[in-house]
Design brief:
By secondary structure, the protein is mainly β. It has two domains: about 190 residues, no CATH class; about 210 residues, no CATH class. The protein is about 10% helix and about 35% strand. The chain is built from eight helices and 30 strands. Strands 3, 4, 7, 8, 14, 15 and 18 form a seven-stranded antiparallel sheet that branches.
Length: about 525
């Protein structure tokens, strides 16, 4: 059998998304091969890797959204905006509003996403400012596409121009507090809401301090123009005609959060389903004896649970300006470095065991392994970060998948570990060695024992390892959704790198029969 010249591919990443100068976390310090002493070990010699830039991705209904701006010397700049429908809560409706409603205030609150792996309270990168403008959206968002037999309607990351052309209001976040608009800045402190009486007067405690009614999670907090919403919904009793969700969303198409003029890095991640748009208003009491203070809470995001309580479309609008370094790297054949990034992701195709010189349908190196008739105890794929090129803000985990069939590996599917999630499958950054490791034992056994021909693996950055859904691009390629939702990336040692110790390694631990 003929074996091609050895090509080793290195692909690795990760770090936490929790500050403007993120350091490696302490998760993943245990090497997967530490407990394999006593077994025989074989290191594969034939591995190829090629990296590609995806087309614009579908950004509808992300499970995790980002907002803000980030400038990366390696990958370039990105600015992320958001357009989002708001919906009626199942426990509240416009029909519950009494007579003569008058809005006291309107606010938008979207909590930051906490990081399950690092235990950080908020995923916020950078301390810069930008001009945040919130508008009423005038562009209709739909779940199905009537022009294509009512198939699923996708919205792609390049939709911003169409949204800009359909703005339906003046700027709504017109607070005198400029940190809510022209000098918007992410604040990671919890948000305190103070108590007011029915007349809108601040309630004091026994020490004459404002009485805290509720403390909300840190996140985006914006006071919006109450006069706009008073006229939109309550003038001429318009709210009484919006008797169902469809009529409501046709009349009010949601909010558009537009990022402008960033001074420096400032980007945050959040789960829209945790957010809300709230009207605080007064209405006549039912016995006409005076006014009473009420709240009307509108939902954000899409809840994919069985109750379907939240069914609101959102679309991430992403502006990327790729760096010359990234463009050159992707165009260069056999580049010694591999560049992986999120949002409009790059992805790497890893081909194991080299060429099939005898044309029997299996790579020659795999044929040799099969012929040895080993009992496979464990297979570990090890990947290393190139810390000389890129390190800050890299994702905490990578996602390795079946490239041919666009699905998770059996090792992922069978892993029931929860703390951290999918720990056996792994792909977590080792904070000491700057390496990632994946257990792909079941995958390798399927190649050997089940005559599988899935010799190609895909590798992307991961935002949430629990998210195993696949997304689509404009040219109909499928990629893991978690890569699209991750705003950052990193650089890895490639197959032609001269540092042999840091190249990708597939190590097979076995027992001779």
């Amino acid at each position: 059998m003929k074996l091609a010249q050895t090509i080793l591919a290195v692909l690795g990443l990760t770090t936490a998304l929790i500050s403007c100068e993120t350091e490696y976390n302490n998760v993943g310090t245990q090497m997967l091969d530490n407990d394999l002493i006593g077994f025989e070990k074989y290191t594969a010699t034939q591995i190829n890797a090629a990296t590609y830039l995806a087309d614009d991705v579908n950004t509808r209904d992300y499970t995790i959204n980002s907002l803000g701006h980030h400038n990366d010397a390696v990958f370039g700049t990105q600015t992320q905006h958001l357009v989002a429908q708001v919906g009626l809560s199942k426990t509240q409706s416009l029909s519950s509003i009494g007579d003569n409603p008058v809005i006291d205030s309107v606010y938008l609150h979207i909590p930051f996403k906490a990081d399950a792996l690092t235990k950080a309270n908020a995923r916020v990168v950078g301390s810069g400012t930008f001009d945040l403008k919130v508008y009423e959206n005038g562009y209709t968002l739909s779940t199905s596409n009537p022009a294509n037999n009512f198939s699923t309607q996708y919205y792609f990351s390049d939709l911003k121009n169409q949204i800009d052309q359909n703005i339906a209001s003046t700027v709504l976040n017109n607070s005198t507090n400029t940190q809510q608009n022209t000098q918007f800045k992410f604040n990671t402190d919890p948000i305190k809401l103070y108590q007011y009486d029915a007349n809108g007067q601040l309630v004091k405690d026994e020490n004459n301090n404002p009485k805290v009614k509720e403390t909300k999670s840190a996140g985006i907090w914006l006071d919006l123009d109450k006069n706009h919403f008073q006229n939109k919904f309550f003038a001429n009793n318009k709210y009484k005609t919006l008797i169902n969700e469809a009529l409501f969303k046709e009349y009010f198409k949601g909010l558009y959060l537009q990022v402008n003029n960033p001074t420096s890095d400032a980007l945050a991640q959040f789960d829209l389903t945790e957010g809300s748009l709230v009207f605080v208003y007064k209405q006549d009491k039912s016995d006409k004896s005076g006014k009473e203070r009420k709240e009307l809470v509108f939902t954000l995001g899409r809840d994919f649970g069985t109750d379907g309580n939240k069914n609101n479309i959102s679309v991430a609008l992403i502006e990327n300006q790729h760096s010359g370094l990234l463009t050159t790297a992707l165009a260069q054949a056999n580049n010694p470095l591999i560049f992986l990034k999120g949002n409009q992701p790059t992805y790497s195709k890893i081909s194991l065991f080299g060429t099939d010189g005898d044309n029997n349908g299996k790579p020659d190196e795999l044929d040799a392994i099969i012929a040895n008739n080993w009992m496979i105890n464990q297979a570990v794929l090890t990947l290393t970060i190139d810390t000389q090129t890129s390190i800050a803000n890299a994702p905490n985990r990578l996602f390795l998948y079946d490239f041919k069939n666009n699905k998770v590996l059996e090792d992922y599917a069978l892993d029931q570990s929860t703390n951290p999630l999918k720990e056996n499958y792994n792909g977590i950054l080792n904070s000491g060695t700057k390496k990632y490791q994946f257990r792909i034992t079941n995958y390798l056994k399927s190649l050997i024992e089940k005559d599988s021909t899935n010799f190609d693996l895909g590798l992307v950055v991961a935002n949430e390892i629990s998210n195993s859904l696949f997304n689509v691009t404009k040219n109909n390629k499928k990629l893991p959704l978690t890569a699209s939702e991750m705003p950052f990336g990193t650089v890895l040692y490639g197959p032609n790198h001269t540092d042999v110790d840091k190249k990708m390694k597939l190590e097979i631990y076995y027992t001779k029969k």
